[in-house]
Amino acid sequence: MTRQNKFDQSEFLKPHNMLRLYASGAFPMADESTGEINWYMPEVRTIIPLNNYNIPRSLKKEISKLNFEARFDVDFIPVVNGCAKRKRTWISKELIEAYLRLQNLGHVHTVETWLNNKLVGGLYGITFKGAFFGESMFSRVSQASKFALVKLIEHLNEREFVVLDVQYLTEHLKMFGAKEISFDEYNQLLLSAYERECKF
Q1: To bridge 137 with a disulfide, which of 32, 89, 97, 145 should be the other Cys (CB 3.0-4.6 Å)?
Q2: pTM value?
Q3: Residue of 146, 153, 147, 127 whose CA lies nearest to 49
Q4: Are 49 and 171 in contact (CB under 8 A)?
Q5: What is the pLDDT at residue 8?
Q6: pLDDT of 34-87, one tens digit each?
């Protein structure tokens, strides 16, 4: 079951209103056909526990052979465009513009995978205090998005974040220890996260 609320887009895409919605556990998605942006608050949430995550040994071995470089917050637009470039996307132009306004306030961040000085993958998300709300990732070469996620997990732990929200459970995320929890449990984690003033 999903709680879905429709709001006036111009009002609820303002940076401070977006932050309030994210902080309450909601996230936006644009309808590909109409462009309408709705906010969703699923009853079942998916997180990667930052105190109990997993990086498969085989992935560690494979990544160690690659000449990837991780960069943070270097090139947001190419990252979000990479995430949006797929057959069906919920990332609309209006949503990207809203993310840019949030970025100007220091609440949107990227983890980027570079190879031979070219962007080949990455991810982005929204931060609020001790919570990171992962939005999307992309990969142009094998393992590039997984490398970015590994670096994100390491970075969030270094900065003492509490929550890594990844929205929905996928096979890709399961290998990292992602699990589903109830909204009540999720909300308790958010309350703990908001007691910290973490800097990405």
Answers
A1: 145
A2: 0.92
A3: 153
A4: no
A5: 53
A6: 888 999 999 999 999 999 999 999 999 999 889 999 999 999 999 999 999 988
- Residue 176's CATH number: 3.40.630.70
Q: Say what the pLDDT of residue 1 is.
A: 36
Return the structure tokens found at 164: 């890594």
Domain coverage including residue 120: 43-193
- Residue 20 included in any domain: no
CB burial readout 133-163, b (16+ within 10 A) else e: bbbbbbbeeebbbbbbbbbbbebbeeeebbb
pLDDT at 142 over 70: yes
Is the pLDDT at 5 greater than 90? The verdict is no
Evaluate whether residue 25 is within a structural domain: no
d(CA 37, CA 99): 13
Q: 34: alpha, beta or left, given left = phi > 0 and alpha = psi -120 to 50?
A: alpha
Q: CA-to-CA distance for 93 and 109, rounded, in angstroms?
A: 18
CA distance 194 to 161: 10
Residue indicated by tokens 């589903």: 180
CA angle, residues 44, 109, 195, in degrees to nearest 5: 60
Q: How many domains is the chain partitioned into structurally?
A: 1
Which of the four pLDDT bands, split at 50, 70 and 90, describes residue 3? Answer: very low
